[in-house]
Specification:
The protein is of the alpha+beta class. The protein has helices at 29-35, 37-46, 53-56, 59-79, 92-102, 106-118, 177-189, 241-256, 299-302; strands at 14-18, 24-28, 82-83, 86-87, 122-124, 136-137, 140-146, 152-158, 193-198, 212-215, 228-231, 260-261, 268-274, 280-288, 291-296. The mean pLDDT is 88.
Length: 303
């Protein structure tokens, strides 16, 4: 008699696939099963064809494996509750609870510091003020961390993953490694200083090109909790914040500081300068998102 097994076959099934360029093509199930097993399994389940012989022998196993992988990832994420032996909160209420148990205000101080720094990014509206036309609702949350010196850190980030992807590039510029090597060689040959710096709260310096508002949470304080706030500055987590900061920084380099962008590398900026002895030379600033490398006879004053 033997043991009955499902026949492992995909013969007779083709799917019409729409590619990113809007073209369509009929692709055999055998190929799709190997390249996109989870997508095909979910499609078969949704279309009620998972019981067909071509699907019944592998779709249940694939969906169970997907669920196990997701469960394992969630378990690892949830298990990470401490860093350097210090409990890391998951919310404002949890942070207050930890401080109460420990008899200090480390996490609350971190929250207050972050909200003070990020406050310039919000324009809080009163209850009798109307939201302008065209503004859509967004959200955000606090991310907590512990630094290597055990300092508590809080960062308010925007939930950019909940918004659709922009059509244009949404990244900040980065200087190439070759440009850095050339600049350091130039500095050595011309006896120029090299100074590196970081732009503090960089994204907050740039106006936001998006029209989003949020409902203030408990981290905004009792006087503002529940109120609406327009996001007027670029925020970490925003999908176009990198681009907004890049555009703003380029404007500052050109219009305010008088630098010119290099044609070979747009994140290398230069301008003519004179040394104390009257010798002319080129001063350079290399930008990597919010980090700057200055090649100059007066590097500190340039920064």
């Amino acid at each position: 008699r033997g043991q009955k097994k499902l026949r492992q076959t995909t013969i007779g099934w083709d799917f019409e696939v729409q590619w990113k360029d809007d073209t369509t093509q009929w692709v055999p199930l055998k190929i799709l099963k190997e390249s996109n097993p989870v997508d095909v399994a979910e499609y078969a389940k949704a279309r009620n064809i998972a019981d067909e012989p071509a699907f019944a022998w592998w779709v249940p196993y694939t969906l169970k494996k997907r669920d196990r992988i997701i469960a394992a990832v969630n378990t690892r994420v949830k298990r990470k509750t401490h860093k350097y032996g210090i409990e890391v909160p998951t919310s404002v209420a949890h942070a207050r609870e930890i401080d109460a148990r420990n008899g200090n205000t480390f996490w609350q101080d971190a929250i207050e510091k972050e909200m003070f720094n990020v406050s310039i990014a919000f324009e809080i509206l009163e209850d009798d003020q109307n939201m302008p036309v065209g503004w859509t609702k967004s959200s955000g949350h606090l991310v907590f961390d512990v630094k290597m010196d055990f300092t508590r850190k809080a960062r308010w980030v925007k939930d950019g993953h909940k918004h659709p992807d922009p059509d244009a590039s949404n990244y900040a510029g980065v200087v190439s490694r070759e440009s850095v090597r050339i600049a350091l060689t130039y500095a050595a040959l011309n006896d120029l200083d090299v100074l590196a710096a970081d732009i503090r709260n960089a994204y907050l310096q740039a106006p936001s090109s998006e029209k989003h508002y949020i409902i203030c949470g408990p981290e905004f304080g009792l006087e503002h909790e529940g109120k609406r706030a327009k996001i007027v500055r670029a925020l970490y987590g925003g999908k176009v914040s990198g681009r907004d900061f890049w555009v703003h920084l380029r404007s500052c380099m050109q219009e305010t500081l008088g630098f010119t962008s290099c044609l070979a590398d747009p994140d290398v900026w230069m301008r003519k300068q004179k040394k104390a002895d009257g010798t002319e030379y080129w001063e350079y600033v290399l930008l990597y998102v919010d980090d700057a490398l200055v090649i100059s006879d007066r590097a500190e004053s340039t920064l």
